[in-house]
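Q: Protein A?
A:
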Amino acid sequence: MRRKQLRVIAAVIATIMLGLVIWHDWHSLKGFTWFNRAEFITVFRGAGLWSVLPLALVLMAVSMIPGAPNSVIAVLNGVCLGPLGFLVNVIGLSAGNCLGRY
């Protein structure tokens, strides 16, 4: 029971933090009216480890939710990261499934 409460508290804190990030960057996001896929992928791949970590964490979180469509994020990993996306998928899904059991 205690672990379940900690998970709920962690999810609430993560949601609040995500809300704060969106609130902080809302003005720059609001003016974003164009999208160039090739440029986005180039910038994303150039970020190095900072592009791998959030995608692996999101994949871990989604894989712990029963019935959630984690394949969408897995395909996004493959498109954005290329061959490295496979490794991120394996790590994210494995860690999420291991954490979801306990």
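Q: Protein B?
A:
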Amino acid sequence: MLPEWTEKQLLERSGGKAAKQDIRFIYFYTPLCGTCKVGMRMLEVIAAMHPDIPVGLCNINYAPGLAHGWQIESVPCLVRIEDGNPAALLYRLGSVQELRLWMLDESGKVTDRS
């Protein structure tokens, strides 16, 4: 099970060392979104394969400030965090393998807004 973070927790971490070390990916979702549930399952598979990759969940309904500030347009959205700031947003998750490669930065697609 992936950890769930509130907007407050993410904002507290976004300016300090914790964001640089603890949070690398944040998956924004809504509870009633079927595609979001599929994406969550894919992330759980990747987390089992790569427990060293920090991934957390955030219900976008309770994070309006982050959604607006980080320009999250829809869910599901996987955000790559670098130095405490959003560096890339991924809306189309594709397959587990595509998602894993994007997260490991092996695919060359650093910023994919599709």
